[in-house]
Amino acid sequence: MTGTKSPPKAVLTCLVVAVIAVLAALFTGGSKLRETAFDWMLGTTPVPPAGDIRVVAIDTKALAALGPWPWPRNRMADLIARIGADRPRVIVLDILLSGPGRTDAGVDANAALGSAIASSPVVLAALLNDVPAETAPKPPPPVLFAGQPAALRPWSAGGALWPFEPFAKQAAGIGIGSLAGDSVGTVRDVPLFVTVGSDIYPGLAAEAVRVAEGAAGFILTGRSQLTQTAARLEIGSISLGLPTEGSLRFRPSGPEDWAGRTVSAGDILAGAVGPGTFDGAIVLVGATAPELGTLRPTAANPVTPGVQITADAVTAMMAGTVPLRPDTAPVVEAAARSLMAILGVFLGWRLAPGRSLGTAGIAAGLWVAGCLAVLHGASLLVDPASPAIALMSATVISATTLAVVARRRAAAVVAQFRQRLAPEIVDRIVSKPGVSRVEGERRTVTFLFTDLEGFTAMALAQRPEDVVALLQDYFQGVSAIITAAGGTIDKYVGDAVNAMFNAPNDLADHAVRAIEAAQQIQKFTEEFRMRPIPHSLGLGRTRIGIETGEVIVGDVGGDTRRDYTAYGTAINTAARLEALNARLGSTICVGPAARSLAPSLRFVSRGIHDLKGIGSLEVFEPAED
Questions:
Q1: Where among 416, 443, 467 does a domain terminate?
Q2: Last residue in a domain, options 319, 346, 362
Q3: What is the three-class DSSP state of 155?
Q4: Model-level pTM greater than 0.85?
Q5: DSSP alpha helix (H) spans, 187-252
Q6: How far is CA 611 from CA 466, 499, 535, 602, in A?
Q7: Which of 111, 143, 335, 362 keeps 20 to 30 A from 165, CA to CA?
Q8: What is the C-alpha separation between 545 and 571, in angstroms, rounded?
Q9: Boundaries of domain holding 380
Q10: Inter-residue contact 506 to 566 (CB < 8 Å)
């Protein structure tokens, strides 16, 4: 569309409104779209190596061998003791051990379990609820602020279900094991910190890392300039950015990743696991059997055990591959959406549809590639979807709107041409727009010339606007008759119309068509003269001359304007015949050549007349029906 006129203001207004609508749609529905895009992006990153992370699964196999859940506390004590014998860095029970639980007759199972917990560094799980409960059995580890305190808004709950107090007092730590999902339950983040009442507690994954690192507490160093997040979290030797929500976005793993780090609890209790399996490892114990109801959907798997989600979070923290969404990302993305939308309007406006969409697609692809590069290089999450969609949507809307405008303009131009040219000629031009010039040729053509009697004198006595309006209506009627008959309007000269038949398109009965068109023009003019305005202005009769002959026709003119016109004696003859009507008192004068090509029509001879520059010839007038 390069080089076209600027679209009208109304069109630009529509484009602006459309772009605003696109941006508004992205803002209102952007969260789900963005999170889905992040899922895809994270899927392109490698799963962090499991390293020393182990999962002990209370799976269907273990339940079949050892009985239904919950197991007696002495069995849990045995499980922890067997794991602890390998001296792991920490054992994390992703299980709520609330109350005294089941026990075997005559066995102090709670004492045995408490002793097992005390013998190893064990982290117990608590679960959030909205019911204010009694004070936690163990105070949370300290959260220290270095520098400007971070403005965190972590997950908050009124209360929690705490582990059995005797166990809690023996544990190395307590972490919140609750996981939040989105509107359809998909888990994408794990909480690193939550507030229970007025206290800040660590999430289960964060507490597992703290105990594994041997850290006394957590240190928040204020806003992180490196990752543009709310704070920098220090846990022993581990340092990572912490967003305002106090949560961690993890790269979800799938069943193919779980196999290498997972051991069945049944195998451990059966003595089928060799010594050293858990030496120096972070061990997470949790339910994986579907019947225990701990399966949650993630981006990688719709039925992911909660303990595997916690293991993914711990793995990411220990490997230092935590994907972060900078606090400045919304501003950057909003600016990108706006710029992309403006670019889309420009592309759709200035380029042809195919080129505009192709260019927009390349630009959108570059944005997505840039977001992937930022994730892989700096572990930062920037929305790849909404700016790209804003660009493509704006381009499509812009290109479509302007295409509709161009189509309407073209239709208007074609309609204007149809008033001056035969429909067949217009159709040929439209179907073959690349044919820019009609070469010269010899053709036998019938010419029709019209003129209004006394028009010049009448026009000088009237207001210019009345004269122009009158001619407009008159030419409209005459032109419609000529083009409907297959004729081509050569030109308008003053009040005269010069037309030709059989050029540029072939018309086998061109003389008959011209004569019948003249008769229709005669009837139209008589009716038109009786209308109020033409009658009040004193519009005269239309005189018409018609003759046929061989002429040269073709496109002539310069680079900026060309006319399809004809050269030959027949043209002058038709003009002289038109003027002869004034002397004969007739309306239509037909030359002998045209008369000979219309044997189906009846004529009245008006005698032989000498025409200036032509010579003597017999003149005919169509007979009245």
A1: 416
A2: 319
A3: strand
A4: no
A5: 204-213
A6: 35, 20, 33, 23
A7: 143
A8: 10
A9: 9-31+332-416
A10: no
